[in-house]
Amino acid sequence: MTALEIARRARACLDGDGLARVVRERSSSLRFAANRPTQATAIDDVTVELAVVRGGHVGRAATNRTDRGSFARCAERAATAAELATTAGAGGHPGLRVDAPRAGADGGSRAREAQPDPDGGAAALDTAFSVARAAGLEAHGIWTAGAVEHAVTDGEQANEERTTDAFFKVICIDACRKRSGYAALAARTTDALPVQELCEEAARKASTDREASELPPGSYPVVFEPAALGLLLATLGKSALNGLAHAEGRGALVGRLGRQVAAPAVNLADSPSFPQGLPRSFDAEGTAKRPLALIQDGVAQAVVHDRRSAALGGTESTGHATAPGGSSYGPLPLNLVLAGGGAADVAELCAPVERGIYVTRLWYANLIRPKETLVTAVTRDGTFLIENGAVTGPLRDLRLTDSLLGMLSRVQALTAGQRLTSEAEFYGRRHPSGVVCPAARVGSVRFTSGAG
Asked: How far apart are CA 316 and CA 306, in angstroms?
C-alpha cells in the first residue's frame, strides 16, 4: 500500500473533525570511526498518526501497525485524549482541514528524485578512509540516504509526496596533535554529494604542523563557513521565527515586525521549493507550503505558523506544522534560505580582517535568553586565526556567547555560493530539513571563554 492508501484507511476509523498522517521511510545509514565502519542500519517502516479535535482540543495517537484493528485502537486513544482535555474548558484550536492539492505541484503521486542507492555508502566510506590514511589521519562520520512518502488526509482532501535525501559528514582527526577538520553536505540524492571533495576539505583542516594559538575572551571579526552560519540560522528559526513564541509574547520579534533587525545584506526566507534545498509541498497538517519572506533587506517581515499558533495570533497558518494540531514547541521553518552576496569565496571574506577568527563549525548551540536571541555555542573541528587578511594557523576552540540578531545586524559580506547544511543524524524518524546559506563575515562576535 502507498502512504496515501494507508492514511485513507486509518482516517476511516475517525469520527468528526480529524486527520490521518502517514510517514513511510526507507533509508540506509553507515557510521564510521577511526577509518573503519562501526554501524550499518536499514529502515523500512511506517508511522501512522491520528489526530482529532473535540471542543477545540487536539488529541493524538500513533502506531506503526497497518491493520484495521490497530487503526481503531489508535483512533480511540486519540479521541479519548481530546475528550479528556475538554474537562479543562473549551480550547481554541480551529480544526484540522487539509488543503486541496495545488495544481501543478510536483509532489503528487510521483517521486521528485530517483531512489537513493544504498551501495553508494560503501564507496563513500572507502574514499574517506583512503583520503584520511594518505594524510596520516583518522576519518569519522556518517553517510545516509533515504526515501520518504508523506501523506495527510482529513477524509475529503488529501496531500501526498515522495522525496529523497542524502547526507555525508566526515571529520578527519589527527589524534597525536589533537587536531580535527570537518566537512559535510546534504543533498536530494547521493550522486549530488561530492564525497572526494568533502574528504579532502576535512583532511586539509586537520593537516597542519603549526601549534594552535590562543585568543583571550573578547569580541573579534569572524568568518563563518556555511555549516556554522546554518546552525545559527536554524536556532533563530526555533526561537524568534516561531509563531507560537511570537503569539504568546515570548518571541524576539514581538513588536519588531516591519523594523530593521539585521544588516541590509540579510535576506532570509523559508523556501520549500528552492532548487538547492530539500523540498516539501505541505506540512504535518496538510497545509500547502509556499515561499515566505522572513527578513528582507534586514527588515523583519513575518514569523511562521501552524493552525494552533495562527489561531492564537489571529492569522492563518503558513504551513509550518511539525505535528497534526501543532507540537508543544510550536511551528518551525524547515526550509530556510539565506540569499548569497557578492564575495567570490571565503578568501575574499577574510581579506579585510586584520585579526579575527575563522569558524568551520559550531557545536551545542543553546539559547540562554530567547527573547534576546542570546545563544551560546562552541567552535569545533576547524577553528583558525585570521591575520592580515589570511588564515595563518589553527586556533584553540572558543565559546561564542552573543545575540543571533545582533550577529546578523553585524554581517558585512556574504559569499555568492551557498551550501545545504543540515544536522541530519536521524536518530529518530526521518524528517529531513536543512538551511541553504553562504559563508559570512561578521564584523564583531563575542567570545566569553576558551573551550579546548
From this structure: 8
In angstroms, the CA 101 to CA 281 distance is 9
Using DSSP, state whether 163 is helix, strand or coil. strand
Distance between start and end Cα atoms, the chain? 52
Q: What is the mean pLDDT of the chain?
A: 94
Q: DSSP alpha helices (H): ranges in 273-319?
A: 307-313
Beta strands in 355-427 (DSSP E): 355-369, 374-387, 390-394, 398-403, 411-414, 419-421
Contact 339, 360 (CB under 8 A): no
pLDDT in tens, 49-104: 999 999 999 999 999 999 999 999 999 999 999 999 999 888 899 999 999 886 54
Contact 154, 163 (CB under 8 A): no
Q: Work out whether strand 355-369 and strand 218-224 pair parallel, antiparallel, or are unpaired.
A: parallel
H or E element at residue 32? strand 18-33
Give the residue-averaged pLDDT of 236-252: 97
DSSP string, 94-132: ----PPPPPTT-S-TTSBSSPPP-TTHHHHHHHHHHHHH
Q: Give pLDDT, residue 115.
A: 52
- DSSP one-letter string for 190-206: GGG--HHHHHHHHHHHH
Separation in Å, CA 151 to CA 16, 107, 294, 302, 321: 19, 10, 27, 27, 14
- Give the global pTM: 0.95
pLDDT of residue 168: 96
Grid coordinates in use for 359?
A: 569558524
Residue 262 is given by DSSP the state S
Position 238 pLDDT exceeds 60: yes
CA–CA gap between residue 34 and residue 185 (Å, rounded): 20
DSSP 8-state secondary structure symbol assigned to residue 213: B
As a whole-number percent, the residues of the chain with pLDDT over 70 amount to 95
The 3-state DSSP class for residue 76 equals helix
Q: At what angle do helices 68-85 and 3-11 cross, to 10 degrees?
A: 60
Residue 108 burial (C-beta neighbours within 10 Å; 0-12, 13-18, 19+)? middle
In this structure, how many other beta carbons lie within 10 angstroms of the beta carbon of residue 416?
Answer: 14
Kindly provide the b/e burial profile for residues 63-86, where b requires at least 16 CB atoms within 10 angstroms of the residue's own CB.
beebeeeebeebbebbbebbeebe
CA dist., res. 263 & res. 441, Å (int): 12
pLDDT in tens, 360-397: 999 999 999 999 999 999 999 999 999 999 999 999 99
Q: How far apart, in whole angstroms, are the C-alpha atoms of residue 6 and residue 107? A: 17
